[in-house]
Amino acid sequence: MGSRASTLLRDEEIEEIKKETGFSNPQSLDFQKIPELAINPLGDRIINAFFPVGEDQVNFRGFMQTLAHFRPIEDNEKSKNAAVSEPLNSRTNKLLFAFRLYDLDRDDKISRDELLQVLRMMVGVNISDDQLGSIADRTIQEADTNGDNSISFTEFIKVLEKVDVEQKMSIRFLH
Amino acid sequence: MDDFWILALWALKTWFYLIVCLIMVPAMFGFSLGVSETYMTILVKTLEWATLKIQKVYAEERTLNASSSSSLIEREDGSMEEELEELRRSRPKPPVGGDFTLSDSFYFTRRGIESIVEDEVTQRFSSEELVSWNLLTRTNVDFQYISLRLTLLYGLGIVVRYCILAPLRITLACIGLSWLVIGTSAVGLLPNWRMKFWLSEWVHVMCYRICARGLSATIHYHNRENKPQKGSICVANHTSPIDIVILCNDGCYAMVGQVHGGLMGILQRAMVRSCPHVWFERAEMKDRHLVTKRLRDHVKDKTKLPILIFPEGTCVNNTSVMMFKKGSFEIGATIYPVAIKYDPKFGDAFWNSSKYSMVSYLLRMMTSWALVLNVWYLPAMHQQTGEDAVQFANRVKSAIAHKGGLLDLQWDGGLKRGKVKESFKEEQQKQYSSMVVGNDSGSSD
Hints:
The structure holds 2 protein chains of 2 kinds. Chain A is mainly alpha-helical. Helices cover about 50% and strands about 5% of the residues of chain A. The model of chain A is unreliable at about 1-10 and about 20-30 (pLDDT under 50). Strand 5 (about 170-175) of chain A pairs antiparallel with strand 1 (about 75) of chain B.
């Protein structure tokens, strides 16, 4: 999986990107060189989230769009972005980002297997298979309302309706 | 035609004599004629004026942020436990089966994205961004046309730096280095009288002083009563190879390093003739016991000069101090820490070895305005009983970081080129697991 972000930037592109995503300062990077990301248990899933399905290169625009999910939600944004269907950093889109982290094969469902795999990433070798399995089972049981033994996006949203997503999945920029 | 050559030769000779009298001789004997002081004052005033100009223009365009922090994002400093607790507050804890919710991933996700936007490590391996431009092309990140005067000044700056200062400095550097080789070899030929040590020290310091003038270095030494003594180890933070010139301006040290070929090799061989340094063959460097033994032997001999070591192992950009390798702290000698901090306004001293070769780096140095820095000598530190080498190294590192106003980081400088160890990830996983099941089983981790 390639991890270089190619930079094909022209001024007009930057302006467009500014409008779409609300960001204003470009940077270029190589994901695997970031030590803090390398030691993050979900590091691989996060990196994966930047790449569109089936591709192994992400350009700057795609990169910024993904990052845009993490902008804090401000009320006055709504009136500005009336033209865009729904801003990338809305609560729903933030939850969609988190959902995709679990949904490994992108079939819009979190199966028991997928949940197990992600759990395994987070806990490493410290919890036995059995225990992990029962945790996964319980989680699915609580969330699954239509009985198909997997979690769809709507069920996902319902489970997390009380969580302060806006605050927890946002990054405040200082400039 | 002939006249031209005669004239050129005459000009060259005068130039040479001027340099010798006005710069070399004072440098050799350690006093100054005041020329560089005047230059520095003019430079400081000019840069201040330029900064004010730039700020005035920007103040009209946008509100100046009062904070001088150079970070991009606001980080929440909660620990893993705190953040996960908050995330889980929204639902009651399940009675059995481990405490996990789907929102747990939010914590890791956010941390991951934060580290992509701005992490503590990769930014240390590139030059520091200046708060305001200092009229050098290389620090020009956001160039906007401000005023005619400023641009003229910038143009004048280029002329001064490249046509006047650079040739001068290059000449000085060449003189300094050749004198180093000649002088040390000459002293090496003398028999082992007491005079020899004194002479060798004098030759070394003299040559380094000339080199320092060759970089227009203005060095402020603080706390010189704490200068390293013979038979001890001196450790310092590492920003560039010039650190050696800086420190050796004020005392004589024994160097440690690999044997190189070429110009460096000539220098190394010459230096070792007059006083003992510790040069290793490449193969020997891999054998840690051999290295430790040789250093220990050197340190035990109280007539030998203090060893100069840079425990970070690589050049860092002078905004922080990275992890110290424990090798030098296992020897059991007295450690004299030294903190070096460059002033970035006058020139960026960081050697980005992946971007610039040594020669282009030196040329960049010689075409900066000047090199202004502070050197603090810290009091000696010993390894305390019950403290292992790693803890001792961290203690010394904190002292240096604190004194120099640098950030104290736990990350390894080797991350510039290599990958981070898996064990850190495993630690995080372990910590998280204890939050999932630790409460249930009742056993403490």
